[in-house]
C-alpha cells in the first residue's frame, strides 16, 4: 500500500502534512527476508492510478521481485498514519475496494509456485476473491512441495470485529500450512483460545503445523516444534514506532528457516529484525538492513 505519514504530533484526523512512502504487511515481510539474502517478491494487484508505477519502481529498487504483480484498473490501496505527542499511532485505511482486493485465483495460477509462500490473514479479510486466492496460492505451493507460512494478522476493522468469521478463515487455511505465526494475546485468543504465548504455541502445534511462532512484542517470541517450546527474548531497544515490527519478525524467521537454521535460531533472527524495526519510523523504509540484523543476532547470542 501507499503510506502517507504525518510528522505532526497529532492523531491522523488532525494532521495536516503527510510524507509519501510505501508499506503493508506482506511487503514488509518480503523486504525483511530480502535484506537478509532470501530472494523475495510480492504477489498483489496495483491500480492504474499515479501511485502504482512509483510503488512498483520502489519495490524493484528495494530488491523485491515484481514478477507476480498484476496491474488492473482501480486505485492502489493506501493508509495514513501519525504519531501523537505520546508516541501513540493512529491510522486511516483505504484498502477495501482497492485494486489489491480484486486479486483472484486466476492471479495466483503461477506456472511455478514459489519455494515458500507467506499468506496473510489480511488477504483473507479484504474480499471474498482475495480469500479464495489466498487458499489457492497455499494449495498450489503445498502441492508443489513448497513451504506455506500463514501469518494470522487479525485486523478487527477488516473483519468488522467478527471473530468467528476470522476463526473460520483460519481453520480453512490451517491444513495447508506448515508454519503458523500469531501475536499474543490479541490473535492467539482467536485462533488458539489462549492468551499465554507458550500455551497458544503448544495448542497450535498440536493441530498440524510443524512450526509455530508467537510474537510477544517487547518480550520477544515463543517458537514451538513437535519436540519443544522455546522462548526467545528481545534485546532492550528504544522504541520509536512499532509499525512493521511483526512483519520483520516474520520475514526474518522465514529467511532463517529457508537458510537451514533451526526454528529457535531462525526466531532469534526474526526477533532481531523486529527489534531494530521499532527503533525507526516504518513501514517499508524502517525494515533494517541485513548487516544490522546479523550484528544484533551475534550480540543477542553473546548475552545468553
N/C terminus separation = 38 Å
Instruction: Give the strand content.
Output: 15-25%
Strand count: 14
Helix content: 25-40%
Overall average residue pLDDT: 94
Q: Low-confidence parts lasting 5 or more residues at pLDDT below 50?
A: none
Structural class: alpha/beta
- How does the overall form come out from the CA principal axes? globular
How large is the count of helical segments?
Answer: 10
Order of helices and strands: EEHEEHEEEEEHHEHEHHEEEHHH
Give the C-alpha Rg.
18 Å
Largest sheet: 6 strands, mixed
Main sheet: which strands, in order across? 9-10-11-12-13-14
Topology at a glance:
Blueprint: E1 2-6, E2 19-22, H1 25-35, E3 40-41, E4 44-46, H2 50-61, E5 64-65, E6 69-71, E7 78-83, E8 89-94, E9 116-120, H3 121-126, H4 128-143, E10 147-151, H5 163-173, E11 179-183, H6 188-191, H7 197-205, E12 211-215, E13 221-224, E14 229-232, H8 245-258, H9 263-277, H10 290-303
Parallel strand pairs: 1-7, 3-5, 4-6, 9-10, 10-11, 11-12
Antiparallel strand pairs: 1-2, 7-8, 12-13, 13-14
Helix pairs in contact: 1-8, 8-9, 9-10
